[in-house]
Design a protein that fits this description.
The structure holds two protein chains of two kinds.
Chain A (H helix, E strand, L loop, with lengths): L29 H15 L5 E5 L7 H4 L3 E4 L5 H11 L4 E7 H7 L1 H9 L5 E6 L29 H4 L5 H6 L4 E8 L3 H19 L4 E7 L3 H4 L3 H15 L3 E5 L1 H5 L2
Parallel strand pairs in A: 1-2, 1-3, 3-4, 4-6, 5-6
Antiparallel strand pairs in A: 5-7
Chain B lengths: L3 E4 H11 L4 E4 L6 H13 L3 E4 L3 H13 L4 E5 L1 H17 L3 E7 L15 H5 L10 E3 L4 H18 L2 E7 H5 L1 E4 L26 E2 L6 H21 L3 E4 L6 E4 L2 H16 L4 E6 L1 E3 L3 H6 L6 E6 L5 H9 L5 E5 L8 H12 L1
Parallel strand pairs in B: 2-3, 2-4, 4-5, 5-7, 6-7, 11-12, 11-14, 14-15
Antiparallel strand pairs in B: 1-8, 6-13, 10-12
The complex binds thiamine diphosphate (TPP).
Thiamine diphosphate (TPP) binds next to helix 4 of chain A.
Chain lengths: 257, 349
């Protein structure tokens, strides 16, 4: 008797993820975060209404990788640009995708004010504790003692201060409706990240206010680690200083989780 | 429509509203603030967008975002804020989205003062931020013209998909004059097809300024240059006053031109054949119009409220065919007609 095989699709590329290969280094988790965002766009049915604001940083080609309308902002200015778009297109889903240099250093004013206004946008903040694109300089989020090309003796907190914890900082602003920190170093953290991305979009879609998901993300190349070691480094070195968790979940946002 | 007594800044704001501006993003700075304040009252009343940004850096990037979404959008500022906007202007220039920026110039450099000046001439005409591109620059010399050029600014911005800067100064912005405002235009019903509004029923639209391939980037630069050449060929505007028999040609714009006009009348009373060319478009600069007057003109005098910026463009236009003199009053000092008359007299001697 002949075996009857039924084909069943159990996994495929999200429609919102372009069918191109990315320029990311092996083991970098930018690509994984892109995929999680694309899945959320598919599942929420917002591919035709979403506008992405790409940063200056490794993710500057985000608009090539996602099948949605998009722009690329000047370094750090993505929240201002997203504000301009959202104010004239209030029914669309507008999100920024920003690195730590982009969001927590040069763009500190823009992100704080977007949150303070309760700007109804979604922010994906990829914290890899380094300036990836320019070749591994110290970031506002680099850890104490972390060796980078611009802190060759390690980050000196006497002269540079302690790294900035953005989720905690932004959660303190009344305009922020949803601010959480996640990571993507194993199945458990990826699952939690996937859920947070959805909530962050839904917070915007329901008009609740500013939503941000911070991701502790890897940069094996500039950390001078192999991909597996890099994931370990997130867990062992970054996470203690940047605890994963929910920093602000407004009452309405709670119902959207 | 009847004339009404209007402050320059308010005339610009209301003219923009009537031209169908959908969104205004700005930051307070004297002598521009009345413009922002008028927008703060009127825009929400009309169901349009007004937002006081946290800085001019943010304001221009909000403008950039709204323009990418295809909205008719503007901002306004003065020198210190225009400096902060240079970054955004560069990105806007390569993105080729229409944007209107008003610069109500004040004395500088630095914080300077809040008196009328024309020290931003180079800043607005020579480049839109870093890189290699320029904006159209319009220079009103009355409240009426400030209103009219604001309407024109939106038309040109959309026609060429470019930045248009309305470069006034503290005098134009702050003074009151009778002016007639245009009728209210309706807002565009649809967004342009290049705008990022969500990829519904079409391929995605992307607006970016990163082109890693030098050949691609070079081609874009040449395309922007070709557009500039078209603007130079088609959009030059200037006003000629008593030039037909003029031996002394004065070139002045904005408030300086206003004051010069009085000086010219006085000079004529003394039998001096002085005339004036007033560039209305600082970019495109009316070089050919200047050149065409050089057969009769013996001397050229540039009057500007700075230490000599437009004079460079005048010299390029004159190409050594006549001596070019400068009378400049920088730092917020405004010349009076008699001083200019004295300079005219001295040139004749
Ligand atoms: C105004 C300006 N300053 C500096 C740069 C150079 N630059 C490009 S990317 C970058 C840092 C990006 O780091 P981050 O935001 O952490 O993102 P990552 O590349 O690590 O993803 C810098 C400094 C620039 N493009 N523009």
């Amino acid at each position: 008797m002949k075996q009857q095989w039924e084909e069943r699709v159990v996994y495929q590329r999200p429609r919102a993820l372009a069918s191109v290969s990315t320029g990311y280094c092996p083991g970098c988790t930018h690509g994984l975060i892109h995929k999680l965002i694309a899945e959320a766009i598919d599942d929420l049915g917002i591919q035709e209404t979403t506008i992405a604001v790409a940063p200056v940083g490794c993710a500057l080609f985000l608009t090539d990788y996602l099948e949605v309308d998009g722009v690329m902002a000047a370094h750090g200015r993505a929240p201002a640009m997203a504000t301009g778009i959202k104010r004239v297109e209030p029914d669309k889903v507008v999100f920024t995708y920003q690195g730590d240099g982009d969001l927590a250093s040069i763009g500190m004013a823009e992100i704080v004010w977007a949150a303070a206004r309760g700007e109804n946008i979604t922010v994906f903040f990829v914290n890899n504790a380094i300036y990836g694109m320019t070749g591994g300089q110290m970031a506002p989020t680099s850890l104490p003692g972390q060796i980078t090309t611009s802190s060759p003796r390690g980050r000196d907190v006497e002269t540079m201060g302690m790294p900035v914890r953005m989720a905690e900082l932004l959660a303190g602003l009344p305009g922020a409706a949803y601010v959480v920190r996640r990571s993507v170093y194993d199945a458990r953290t990826i699952k939690a990240a996937r859920q947070a991305i959805r909530t962050a979009f839904r917070v915007q879609m329901e008009g609740v206010g500013f939503a941000l998901v911070e991701f502790l993300s890897s940069c094996p190349t500039n950390w001078r680690l192999n991909p597996a070691q890099a994931l370990e480094w997130i867990k062992e070195d970054m996470e203690p200083y940047y605890p994963l968790g929910d920093y602000k979940v407004s009452d309405i946002a709670k119902q959207l989780q | 429509m009847a004339k009404e007594l209007l402050v320059g800044n308010v005339a610009i704001a209301e003219a923009a509203i009537r031209a169908g501006v959908e969104a205004f993003f700005g930051y307070p700075i004297t002598p521009q603030t009345e413009l922002l304040e008028h927008m703060a009252g009127r825009m929400p009343e009309l169901g349009r967008v007004f937002l006081q940004a946290e800085s001019e850096v943010a304001a221009i990037n909000m403008v950039y975002g709204a323009a990418c979404a295809g909205a008719r959008v503007m901002t306004s500022s003065s020198g210190p804020g225009i400096s902060l906007m240079q970054e955004g202007l560069s990105y806007i220039a390569i993105s080729e989205v229409p944007v209107v920026v008003v610069d109500v110039m004040r004395g500088g450099p630095g914080l300077g003062n809040i008196q009328p000046a024309q020290g931003d001439y180079n800043q607005v005409t020579k480049t839109a931020g870093h890189g290699d591109s320029r904006s159209i620059v319009l220079a009103p010399s009355s409240v009426q013209e400030a209103a009219d050029l604001t309407g024109l600014a939106f038309d040109l911005a959309e026609k060429y998909r470019t930045i248009v800067i309305v470069a006034g100064d503290g005098m134009i912005g702050q003074m009151m004059e009778p002016a007639e405002l245009p009728p209210m235009k309706s807002l565009p019903a649809t967004r342009p097809d290049w705008a990022v509004t969500g990829a519904k029923g079409r391929l995605k639209n992307v607006i970016t300024s990163v082109f890693l391939d030098a050949e691609v980037m070079e081609a874009i630069n040449w395309r922007l240059k070709a557009k500039l050449d078209r603007i130079q060929a088609e959009e030059v505007r200037c006003e000629l006053t008593l030039v037909d028999d003029a031996e002394i040609l004065i070139v002045a714009f904005g408030s300086a031109a206003r004051i010069t006009k009085t000086a010219i009348r006085e000079a004529r009373e003394q039998g001096i054949r002085a005339g004036m060319l007033r560039p209305i478009t600082l970019l495109p600069f009316p070089s050919t119009a200047i050149e065409e007057l050089l057969d009769r003109v013996q001397t050229v005098l540039v009057v500007e409220m700075n230490t000599g910026q437009m004079v460079d463009d005048v010299r390029l236009a004159v190409q050594g065919r006549a001596p070019v003199h400068l009378y400049g009053r920088p730092g917020g000092s405004v010349p009076v007609p008699d001083e200019i008359l004295d300079v005219i007299m001295s040139l004749r001697a």
